[in-house]
Specification:
The chain has four domains: 6-165, Alpha-D-Glucose-1,6-Bisphosphate, Chain A, domain 3; 190-308, 3-Layer(aba) Sandwich (Alpha-D-Glucose-1,6-Bisphosphate, Chain A, domain 3); 313-466, Alpha-D-Glucose-1,6-Bisphosphate, subunit A, domain 3 (Alpha-D-Glucose-1,6-Bisphosphate, Chain A, domain 3); 474-555, TATA-Binding Protein (2-Layer Sandwich), CATH 3.30.310. It has 566 residues and is α/β, with parallel strands linked by helices. It is 41% helix and 18% strand. Bound molecules: 1,6-di-O-phosphono-alpha-D-glucopyranose.
Length: 566
């Protein structure tokens, strides 16, 4: 007996019939939502449509977002990320409801869960709701969006707004802007114009607006995903005088050849520590996005050092360095107290130890660690006035507190600035940062523009940037096992709790290795266990990673081929 009105129950009945849950699958909410083979996701999308509507109703009709994407995963996969009205990821209490709904097989189960969620929020089924939804370039997108739309149509009074092909950060931006008009205009033009204007003004304030500094050529690897058309549209909107000339490769223009995330993009570059084949020869500065353009890493091929990667740790370090030294100008001028604005960098266990040492010892920054997943880093960063957060894989952004904005507004209004040009320039630059950086979520385009601006303002080459610190040699690899859910971790993913005894075995492998560090955690986006190792030489890091991978493979029923060399 359904607890919902008959018309809604009829919609649920039709939806369950069209989008039945496959019997054999148990759905779980991973690092960034539901993600798996696209063929298994139709029923999940239908239910996510219902859930997104409930979440919006529970929040008084504030707009929420749904992004159909599997980001860095291969083409046959797909997934879904849910966005809160503030642009954040879905709150944990709704992750639990999402999992329960995804695993419901019958109309009664689903109706009960929907009714309970509405009751918990004290909201009627016909309360108003608004949901913006978009998708990346995957061939399964249209089918899964249709299932999502069926779910969005289950409850009455849902304003379902399709935004089509967008990057994940664009969807986050559109959602946040539609709830907070002061954040920006909630259109893709609004997104482009905001970034173009903020970047241009930042260059001018930083004394780099006249194109005097030749930043050299920039290639952008679009991972054959949505980031390529998104960046092309921004550059077209900016016009020929824009102080950024980028050549986009791996742009997905020929789907037969340009396969999403295949030998392309940030995950390929970071995981394999090599350039995509199409950029193997260039000595120019290169940036690589992932499939939904919410991560970016840089790299270049040095004539002397070979392939040089500038990953999320290097992005965080350059951003933190630039912000803290610009802020110091205001402190030195007596316009901001030394301890007035707190700054921290949030990292995960994948952060290279050399970056943490640099941030703590050279910059004097507070460094905090969280579990993997931008949702964890984002929330930790919000505790500071300036929260720089990056995963080594290139996911991240900077968030600024209301106090930061008020402080910069106060400084900007100070008449003494008129006679202190360096302080005036510093204040203008810092005041622009909340617009340059997409504070809703990590955004490959916005992060790239910020980095490009810093390089120009500081007159830095990519090699200068790389020299901020020297990474400890490291290796990231993955192992497929029969059941990755038997792996549980603690201490921000740095230690295994289960399988029992495996952490002791890892410790024994690490102990004899000079400057050795290694950890193991189950991926929340792929059916693998990830292995990370660091040591004082690349050979030692590789050997440690192989030994830990073998341990995982042997003791946890490895599947397929075990990696035996890099
Ligand atoms: C998602 C998350 C990231 C995480 C990555 C890999 O990124 O948003 O925070 O680092 O998955 O996670 P895992 O190691 O659990 O597979 P994306 O770009 O794939 O959406």
């Amino acid at each position: 007996m359904s607890l919902l009105p008959a018309d809604i129950t009829a919609n649920l009945t039709a939806g369950i019939a069209s989008y039945p849950k496959p019997d054999s699958v148990v759905y779980s909410y991973g690092t960034a939502g539901f993600r798996m083979a696209a063929d298994l996701l139709d029923s999940v999308m239908f239910k996510v449509g219902i859930l997104a509507a409930i979440r919006s109703k529970a929040l008084g009709g504030a707009c929420v977002g749904v992004m159909v994407t599997a980001s860095h995963n291969p083409v046959p996969d797909n997934g879904v990320k849910l966005v809160e009205p503030s642009g954040d990821m879905l709150v944990p209490e709704y992750e639990k409801i999402a999992v329960a709904m995804a695993n419901a097989s019958t109309v009664d189960e689903l109706a009960e869960l929907a009714a309970a969620a509405l009751a918990a929020a004290s909201v009627a089924p016909d309360a108003p709701a608004a949901v913006r939804y978009g998708h990346d370039t995957r061939p399964s997108a249209n089918r899964l969006v249709a299932a999502l739309e069926a779910g969005l149509a289950v409850l009455p009074a849902v304003d379902a707004i399709p935004v089509g092909l967008v990057s994940t950060p664009q969807l986050h931006y559109l959602v946040k802007a539609s709830n907070e008009p002061q954040f920006g205009i909630a259109t893709l033009d609004g997104y482009n114009n905001k970034l173009i204007a903020a970047y241009t003004q930042l260059l001018e304030a930083g004394g780099a607006g006249n194109g005097e500094f030749d930043a050299g050529k920039l290639f952008v690897d679009g991972a054959n995903g949505v980031g390529a058309p998104a960046l092309a549209a921004l550059l077209a909107a900016a016009g020929p005088d824009f102080a950024l000339h980028a050549s986009i490769v791996n742009d997905g223009s020929d789907p037969e050849v340009n396969i999403l995330n295949h030998e392309a993009g940030a995950d390929y570059v970071k995981s394999n520590q090599m350039p995509p084949p199409v950029l193997a020869e260039t000595a120019d500065r290169c940036a690589a996005f992932d499939g939904d353009a919410d991560r970016v890493v840089y790299f270049f091929n040095s004539p002397s050092a070979g392939f040089v990667l500038l990953d999320g740790d290097k992005l965080a370090s350059l951003m933190a360095d630039y912000i803290s030294s610009t802020l110091q100008v205001l402190v030195d001028a007596g316009l901001v107290a030394a301890d007035e604005l707190s700054l921290a960098v949030i990292q995960t266990a994948y952060a290279n130890g050399a970056s943490t040492t640099y941030l703590r010892n050279e910059l004097g920054a507070t460094v905090e660690f969280t579990k993997t997943g931008v949702k964890h880093l984002h929330h930790a960063a919000l505790a500071y006035d300036i929260g720089v957060y990056f995963e080594a894989n290139g996911h991240g952004t900077v968030v600024f507190s209301p106090k930061y904005v008020e402080t910069l507004a106060r400084v900007a209004a100070n008449p003494d600035l008129a006679t202190a040009p360096p302080a005036a320039a510093a204040a203008t630059q810092l005041g622009l940062l909340p617009a340059v950086v997409n504070q809703a979520v990590g955004d490959a385009i916005s992060d790239m523009l910020f980095i490009e601006a810093i390089l120009r303002i500081r007159r830095l080459s990519v090699a200068d940037w790389a020299a901020l610190y020297t990474e400890h040699p490291n290796r990231l690899t993955k192992v497929a096992v029969a059941d990755r859910t038997v792996f549980t971790t603690t201490n921000a993913d740095q230690q295994l709790v289960e399988p029992t005894g495996m952490q002791d075995a890892i410790d024994a492998l690490v102990a004899p290795v000079d400057a050795g560090r290694a950890f193991v955690r189950p991926s929340g986006t792929e059916d693998v266990v990830r292995v990370y190792a660091e040591a004082s030489s690349q050979d030692a890091a590789d050997a440690l990673a192989l030994a830990v991978a073998k341990l995982v493979y042997d003791t946890a029923d490895g599947v397929g081929e075990l990696v035996t060399s890099f």
